[in-house]
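Example record

One chain of 136 residues, shown exactly as stored in the release files.
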Amino acid sequence: MLTKNPSAPLNTIMLVDDNQADNMIHRRILQKMNIAKNVVDFLYAEDALAYLKSPEGKDADLIFLDINMPQMNGFEFLDEFKKLKTDPDDLPAVIMLSTLNPNWDEDASQNYPLIKHFFTKPLTEKFVNSILESVG
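Predicted structure tokens for this chain:
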């Protein structure tokens, strides 16, 4: 859904990660870069899904999603997420984040076309800029 003018800020970027410190660091990086009107973070995938179902969640343009979370992992989140909308063009871009071996996760993500990229945490401005250039 990143079809916006690259110079215009995104509406909302979502961070879905059970690690509060990672969410805080990633939020600061994104806010410093001033690329979105809103940055929202969630410790639980279920809360992020509830947000996406709400009126506010309709403005989400980009989701940074941790793979390994309790209760519902990133891939389980994606299984539920893709049920929310029927038009793939209306779905936010999903960027998977993990501290694990990226080769395994990249192989697993081949079954999920919603995933636009995979990065090893933590996010950096360089990663974010490369994401915006490739999916924008």
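Notes: The longest strand covers residues 10-16.
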